[in-house]
Design brief:
The chain is α/β, with parallel strands linked by helices. Helix content is 39%, strand content 20%. The longest helix has 16 residues, at 46-61. The radius of gyration is 20 Å and the shape is globular.
């Protein structure tokens, strides 16, 4: 069983969890060094944008103020670039990997092409993001009311691919008893949202930044019915609503409303694993597995100082949106729960896929 509360914003929407700074970081000097961050996606994508925003601040706060370059290596839904990082690890602190949800999904789904192992690397920081669902007032007259969707024989939503993080939508709708929810494969998030605006889809979703930018104004104008967020799990295990939408219930709250019982057992276990993948480690940056402790602390210290920088604090809401940023060893446990799914959770996901007539399965 879990506790739900409203998350309190820190530093203009950036919630930060850290560990104490180690004096070992002072031993590191990157003067005249060039640091490469492998981004296993194409230029201009979300991961490049996020770490492109962090780049000048990390250059400023890393010892010796080194030059940082982003190396985009797209292919295979991030597999190609992540494998390249794995097979060329340099532990001196000048070679890192930036990931997104799809990177974790590839490992969690046991893709045979995956050579990388996120659980073996040393996380610098996880940058979490919330997920929100909404519908049309023509379908759901009252906000947060799933009854019309449960009773409706057909409700369409966008899906890029069942082998991507979009498979979690299938699990969510299955657990809420929305048997009429049917995916339209091949639609990206942006094209799916445009289809929703045209009235072709009945359910849509967005991350925090787009929810605030696009959906909240539409909700206020009466053009969209808010449904729920997935919920942000905290280090104490509680699940929190976001301060920017304190009235929006989380998935565990909606689950309890539908079932008349709290989320627990294998359903709770699956939720926690999916939340780690989808929300808590939405974006992440890693050092190689053999990086010395002093190098790890130097990077984490630079990240901490970045989050305290007044210019960063001023820019972050428009660049990142509300973000829950986790720094330190506690990030390792989140990655472990995200990248290695239990047999019970794999069965839950496969059962939801089978119930919705998808052929893809996690092996």
């Amino acid at each position: 069983m879990i506790t739900v509360k409203v998350i309190k914003s820190v530093a203009m929407g950036i919630a930060l969890s850290t560990v104490a700074v180690s004096p070992a970081a002072a031993q590191v000097d990157f003067t005249d060094k060039t640091i490469t961050i492998v981004v296993p996606f194409g230029e201009g994508g979300g991961t490049s944008q996020v770490f492109g925003f962090f780049k000048p601040y990390l250059q400023k706060y890393l010892p010796g103020q080194p030059l940082i370059q982003l190396l985009n290596v797209p292919g295979g839904g991030s597999i190609r670039g992540s494998n390249q990082f794995h097979n060329n690890q340099n532990p001196d602190g000048t070679y890192l990997l930036a990931t997104s949800t799809s990177t974790i999904v590839n490992q969690a789904a046991r893709n045979p092409l995956v050579e990388f192992d996120l659980t073996s690397y040393r996380p610098v920081a996880l940058i979490g993001s919330e997920t929100h669902w909404f519908s049309s007032p023509n379908v759901v007259a009252e906000p947060y009311d799933f009854a019309p969707l449960i009773e409706r024989p057909l409700s369409l939503y966008a899906m890029n691919s069942p082998s991507s993080a979009d498979l979690f939508h299938v699990w969510v709708f299955d657990k809420l008893g929305i048997k009429g929810a049917k995916a339209i494969p091949g639609l990206s998030s942006s094209s799916g949202y445009q289809a929703f605006l045209r009235g072709e889809l009945q359910i849509s979703s967005q991350g925090s930044a787009n929810y605030l930018r696009q959906i909240v104004p539409a909700i206020n104008a009466g053009e969209v019915s808010d449904l729920m967020s997935f919920g942000m799990i905290q280090e104490d295990g509680s699940v929190e609503r976001m301060s920017y939408s304190p009235d929006t219930p989380t998935f565990p709250e909606q689950y309890e409303s539908v079932h008349g019982a709290p989320l627990e057992g294998e359903d709770l276990e699956a939720y926690q694993a999916i939340n780690a993948i989808w929300n808590r480690a939405s974006k992440a940056i890693f050092l190689p597995k053999d990086a010395p402790d002093e190098v790890i602390e130097a990077w984490r210290d630079a990240m901490r100082k970045t989050l305290e920088d007044p210019e960063f604090i001023a820019e972050a809401p428009s660049k990142l949106g509300p973000a829950n940023i986790l720094i330190g060893e506690s990030a390792s446990s989140v990655i472990a729960s995200a990248a290695v799914l239990s047999d019970a959770t794999v069965k839950q996901l496969n059962d939801a896929l089978a119930a919705n007539n998808f052929t893809f399965r996690i092996k």
